Amino acid sequence: MKYSIDISSDDIQNSLLEEKINFNNFDKTKPSYDFNLDNHIGNVHFKEELLSGLILSDWESRFTTNTKLTSYHLTPIFSMHFMLSGYVNYEISNIKCPIKGGQNNIWSISEDKLGYSQYKKEMSCSSWCVSFEEDFLTRLVNAYPDLLTDPYLRHINGESFCMHKNHMSSNCDMNLIISQIKNAKLMGKTCHLYTQAKVMELLALQLQQLENKRNGLPCLCCLKKNELDKIHEAKNLLLSDINTPPTILDLSRNIGMNEKKLQNGFKEVFNQTVYGCLFDHKMNLARQFLLDTDKTIFEIALECGYEYASHFTTAFKRKYGISPKQFKRLNE
Fold first, then answer.
1. What gap in Å lies between CA 26 and CA 19, rounded to an integer?
2. Residue 235: alpha-carbon gap to chain centroid
3. Mean pLDDT by 10 residues, the chain (332 residues)
4. Phi, psi at residue 150, to the nearest 5°?
5. Helix H or strand E encompassing 70
6. Which of 3, 185, 306, 328 could disulfide-link to 312, CB 3.0 to 4.6 Å?
7. Do 242 and 307 form a contact (C-beta atoms < 8 A)?
8. How far apart are the C-alpha atoms of 274 and 42, rounded to whole Å?
9. Which domains does the chain have, with CATH numbers?
């Protein structure tokens, strides 16, 4: 898969990012590619992992202004796309394709095409996708012709399209599988086999959703559209004041959803518990303070909602395996 990405904010080109996010020469002998950006435009973390005909891509971003990314695809792409959080307005071959957290689709992008994605100011966005290399995709179509022949023919004929024009809602099973794939390294030597099997399971769930849509059957989704919006609202409220975060009861009252549905909704949409989400946010914030500032451990503890530095140190070590002091020393 060969493509490049440029970024612009308020019509000012960021040449550093334009130079760095360039995947035309992706080295297939290496198992993964990591890119990190942290400058005046915002924060981006992007990772691609190559695995036996599959390319797993993980994107996280937060921009300081309304931002537009321009991508140029030198080779065709056929992929399963999952928006985990946030909102992005994609446009490829004059096809507008806005998508928000909790939605998914299967799409094809033909070669030599420009694509655009627009990100809103100060919105945290994360997405995850699996792209199929041509040989792998061909074998898959030959194995399951009834399921994949039609979209495959459209794909190889150079058509760019989304298999469902309005996107589909990701369900609990899909989010669980994505979480399992992300943690597949825990499987040791069976990691690649396990990941490939889980990708096939995920594809089967997407194709089932498409079939249900065509036949007018309800999709196996735990949350409705307005409930998804409430879950995102709850996350924003939760993280708005980490020094005095609301209780789950407070959150449920504020968004008008019962506690059990709120807790299950967090697991479905964010693959985390409510307080697991808060904990990860605190630890990510602490990591940035340690990397980018000269604040003391006690000051960082207070910034991250911990009254005692010892409690903060214990939490940080549980997350990263080393103490804040050790982390800072390793990154000096």
1. 14
2. 16
3. 56 40 50 80 88 92 88 85 93 83 91 82 93 94 94 92 86 84 86 94 92 70 73 92 93 93 83 89 93 93 94 93 91 79
4. -60, -55
5. strand 67-73
6. 306
7. no
8. 26
9. 3-214 (2.60.120.10), 225-330 (1.10.10.60)
